[in-house]
User: Fold this.
Amino acid sequence: MRVPLTTRDFLERAELVYGDRIGIVDEPTQPAPSLGGLSYREVARRGRALQAALDELGIGVGERVAIVSHNAARLLEVLLAVPASGRVAVPINFRLSPEEVEYIVGHCGARVLLVDPELESSLGHVTAEHRFGTGEEYEQLLRFDVEPRPWAEPDEDATATINYTSGTTARPKGVQMTHRNLWINAVTFGMHMQVSDRDVYLHTLPMFHCNGWGLPYTMAGLGAQQIVLRKVDGAEILRRVEEHGVTVMAGAPAVWNAVLEAAADWDGEIPGRDRVRIIVAGAPPPSKTIARVEAELGWEFNQIYGLTETAPLLTINRPRAEYDDLEPEERAKRLSRAGVPALGTRMRTSESGEVLAQGNTVLAGYWENPDASAEALEGGWFHTGDGGTIDDGGYVTISDRKKDVIITGGENVSSIEVEDVVFSHPAVAEVAVIGVPDDKWGEMVTAIVVVAEGEQVTEADIVAHCRGKIAGYKIPKRVEFRDELARTATGKIQKFKLRESFWEGAERQVN
Ligand code: AMP
Assistant:
């Protein structure tokens, strides 16, 4: 028998097996009406009410429903219920500027746009055929009185979500995730992390980012409780771990640095000692962070490696039995590698040292971008754009980045996009944007500028010029001025030369 692997399965099982359990706990401060704690039965019932509402609006199978929201129970509902009806969910980064959001809504052709009330005023002019706020308006939209139309021909190869990600082009690309991609990621991830109905998951990751690494599906399908966290804050994370008995969290190294900082001022015993497992990715965590997480928090440190394009799970590094007796430093060193391929994934490096992957979590393609899709999947392998090595035991280590992308606080920034904006300042003759290592952000967006003849411009002028045009986290945190930029014989800026002085002494060229 062959039953299509669709994301319907996760909420359906949550309702059947764990219907009475509180499945999702929203923020108490959410705009009215607050959802407080929702049982999985209630989440499923609300999901059907959303599907029925979309039926009523005439949104068909395959059509896109976009949502811009901070982490919220309603965003989780959209991720669980919209693809389950055969429609496509497009969760958009809430930190983007209105113009960036507008581009994405237009590019994916969303007919419905859902907007977090907190973002209502800043996204004022962004429109779609139907736009609703995710507070009161969303509640009024829900149709509890009619059953939704079932998805007539469920197809595991149909697109479930489109996740826009900044890459090597000025505009973000829409990563098309199929139901099969999400299913395999969720199940494999759950298996490797041994998720069970005893787990309590705190959403320390933004849910829009690669659908919260697909973990909302894992947690729902296996009956784990999900606690919404709207804004990342180290002390608040510790408080939630204590209050809700959290056992699993995921996030970029910057999140764990914030927790470590907060732990130094924490009164009493750190909550979750010997209970919490954290999953880290987005950038290579320094061994020092790993050792501190284990020693100062007593939390289990796990690393994964992957991309939005791979759902994201490619490799995983869980502390193995063999590490139990190692000295902390040696143990941290082992855990600082990106990990070994997850079950069903194959990894190799190309001649130029680029990390390549094959597996069922690899994207179908980029939305309406056949050239980028062909390039990414050339030769039947997915090209990650990351440089790295694979040792005899199959452990992948990421050592540099081949693609022109900066990762700051776990979010991708396209250098080219920032260069375009800086260059649009009339006093800028030339610009190169690079990432430089930074303790807090991992990498810091830095612009190297050559001023046009006869012109004058300051760092503050450039920062002010960028404000409003691109998301705040993409704006250079530092601007340096040079007389000229190193170029190749063909006139191409040699970014690696510009980067050299900043990365001197570093073991690897990513942070
Ligand atoms: P995104 O698609 O925004 O999730 O970003 C994916 C990128 O994050 C990858 O291509 C890597 O450059 C980086 N990344 C993710 N996980 C790791 C990791 N464990 N170690 C090093 N870099 C990572």
Q: What stands out?
A: The longest strand covers residues 428-438.
